[in-house]
Design a protein that fits this description.
Layout (H helix, E strand, L loop, with lengths): L1 E5 L2 E5 L31 E7 L5 E7 L12 E4 L4 E5 L3 E7 L8 E6 L5 E3 L4 E4 L3 E13 L2 E14 L4 E3 L7 E2 L3 E3 L3 E3 L7 E5 L5 E3 L5 E4 L3 E9 L5 E9 L3 E4 L4 E5 L5 E6 L8 E4 L5 E3 L4 E4 L3 E8 L6 E9 L7 H5 L9 E5 L4 H6 L8 E7 L5 H12 L2 E7 L2 E3 L5 E3 L6 H12 L6 E4 L4 H4 L1 H16 L6 E3 L18 H11 L6 H8 L9 E2 L5
Parallel strand pairs: 6-12, 14-21, 22-24, 23-29, 30-31, 30-35, 31-32, 35-36
Antiparallel strand pairs: 1-2, 3-4, 5-7, 7-10, 8-11, 9-10, 11-12, 13-16, 15-19, 17-20, 18-19, 20-21, 24-27, 25-28, 26-27, 28-29, 33-34, 36-37
């Protein structure tokens, strides 16, 4: 409502029309110079309906008084001295409006166009919440000659995703002088918009490339490598120890033992053998590799021969490298991730793929079996083992303990497990103790055929069962008989059980020649014995 003089009398005029409104924005530079115009006409007169006391309607020509709207060219809204500002989530910024002294008593109101991205307090403090964009608006309200007006000033805030945490895992157990290693930072969240840079506490010992994290070990000593974000200053300090590569001097026939999981390397130097022109070779690179300068690295547990050949090829010196495993492969968490293990009620532990089919295939027909195989994870037999599990409707896992190794004579030899026996014990004890099993079965003390690894498996499983008080649930595979030596009264399996068992055995077609030659006669028999009754 406004008051206007008509015929020298003051009367109240009501109108839904907004008399004057000014919207000022940084996106329109000339906003302060623009005068509002009536929506219906650009002239200075308008038709207005007057309600009199006797409720009669009359239309009069009314002269509209021009209102001088304040010019706010001096007003500006900025953050960090910029009209458009980019910041990282989680930070706070203070809006700094500039205005003439005459406006100090005016009412300032702040608004955010996207409160999920950024909020603003009544004092102009902006809190950034997450990645996105928001317009922060300063609103001025007032009256000029009794006419209300409103002016707006905008500042655009772009919020980038900041880094909340950084972690740098150790890629190696040992960092050797003269070697390069690639460090990788795990940054959260993955879609951050900051740069990650690297620095070192002592570049004379370990240098690091600022942008990539590649380190070069120069001298022994302790060094801190730091990965940090460039804007929010999040960082992670990785403590590294630079070491010299151990020297191993040996004569022909010497054995060197290293741990599979320590990542240790050896520098081979032969006594009474000129090193110039010497070439090195690993008989089994899957176990241990060697460089042309004699640096050896373990890859898997097992045994492998490394040979050094002189330049004139007149002398070949062998050394046996034993990669031991004293910690085992399994943990309770790893076992919990085995498919179907929680639904299984019976446990079978065997040394090799095909042992479960030859010595216990008919029993698998009963269902709910979990089979742990200790060797051959890296060979074709692993695939056959998986196929057997499918046919038997059983669950299982296969580990990477050594089976055989290649000698310098060119012949394969069975590993006696002396370097991994401690690891085998820890693994079988972990899985036996994982849950309460109705039945546990493994190789007999004789190893059925006298196989060394069968005997070791029996010894470690029996030891674990006694320590875990599950010995009364332990069974051993039945006695092995050669062709023509099977007792006439030895109980046989049913035809259905034999058919089921043969289907499992035939899965191992790579071993079929050996099965036919040595063990086929035992397929109809499966006379398990309780461990407490074994004689």
């Amino acid at each position: 409502m406004i008051y206007s003089k008509i015929k020298n009398k003051t009367k109240l005029i009501t109108s839904p029309m907004l008399i004057a409104m000014l919207t000022l924005s940084l996106s329109a530079p000339a906003f302060a110079d623009t005068q509002p115009t009536p929506a219906s006409d650009k002239t200075n007169t308008t038709n207005t309906t007057v309600n009199t006391d006797n409720k009669k309607d009359a239309t009069d020509s009314v002269e509209e008084k021009k209102v001088s709207v304040p010019n706010y060219k001096e007003v500006a809204l900025k953050a960090n001295n910029k009209k458009n500002v980019s910041v990282y989530s989680g930070t706070k910024i203070k809006l700094l409006p500039s205005y003439p002294k005459k406006l100090r008593k005016k009412k300032f109101i702040y608004r955010s166009s996207n409160p999920e991205v950024a909020t603003v307090s009544r004092r102009g403090l902006v809190k950034t919440n997450k990645k996105g964009r928001a317009n922060i608006t300063l609103i001025l309200r007032g009256r000029k000659n009794r006419v209300p007006y409103k002016a707006k000033f905008k500042c655009k805030v772009i919020i980038k995703q900041s880094v909340t945490s950084i972690n740098v895992p150790k890629t190696e157990a040992h960092y050797y002088v003269g070697k390069k290693y690639n460090l990788k930072a795990n940054v959260f969240p993955a879609f951050h918009q900051e740069k990650i840079l690297w620095k070192t506490s002592d570049k004379s010992k370990i240098s690091v490339k600022r942008k990539t994290g590649v380190i070069k070990v120069k001298a022994p000593g302790d060094v801190t490598i730091t990965a940090y974000s460039t804007k929010t200053n999040k960082e992670f300090n990785l403590q590294l120890k630079a070491e010299e590569v151990p020297d191993v001097k040996f004569d022909e026939g010497k054995t060197v033992t290293i741990d599979q999981f320590t990542g240790i390397q050896l520098h081979l130097r032969f006594i009474n053998l000129p090193t110039q022109g010497v070439t090195y070779k690993s008989m089994d690179p899957s176990i241990a590799t060697v460089t042309n300068t004699g640096y050896v690295k373990s890859n898997r547990c097992g045994e492998a021969y490394i040979t050094a050949t002189t330049a004139d090829k007149k002398k070949i010196v062998p050394i046996k490298v034993v990669c031991k495993n004293s910690t085992g492969f399994l943990s309770t968490a790893a076992i919990a991730n085995f498919e179907g293990i929680d639904e299984c009620t019976n446990l079978m532990i065997v040394a090799h793929p095909d042992d479960e089919a030859l010595w216990g295939g008919a029993h698998l027909k009963e269902g709910k079996w979990f089979i742990l195989c200790l060797t051959n994870q890296y060979t074709l037999r692993k695939t056959e083992y998986r196929q057997m599990l499918e046919k038997a409707n059983a669950k299982g896992a296969i580990l990477d303990y050594p089976d055989i190794f290649y000698e310098t004579t060119g012949k394969w030899k069975i590993s006696n497990w002396s370097s991994v026996r401690e690891g085998v014990y820890k693994d079988v004890k972990t899985i036996i103790g994982y849950k309460k099993w109705d039945q546990i079965v493994t190789h007999s003390p004789s190893g059925e055929t006298g196989h060394t690894q069968h005997k070791v498996t029996n010894a470690e499983v029996t030891k674990a069962c006694k320590e875990l008080n599950t010995f009364n649930n332990l069974w051993y595979f039945g006695t092995f008989y050669r062709v023509g030596c099977i007792p006439a009264d030895l109980p046989k399996l049913t035809p259905e059980e034999i058919e089921f068992k043969e289907a499992l055995v035939n899965t191992y077609w790579h071993e079929m020649a050996s099965i036919d030659k040595y063990w086929r006669q035992m397929i109809p028999y499966e006379n398990w014995v309780m461990a407490k009754d074994y004689k």
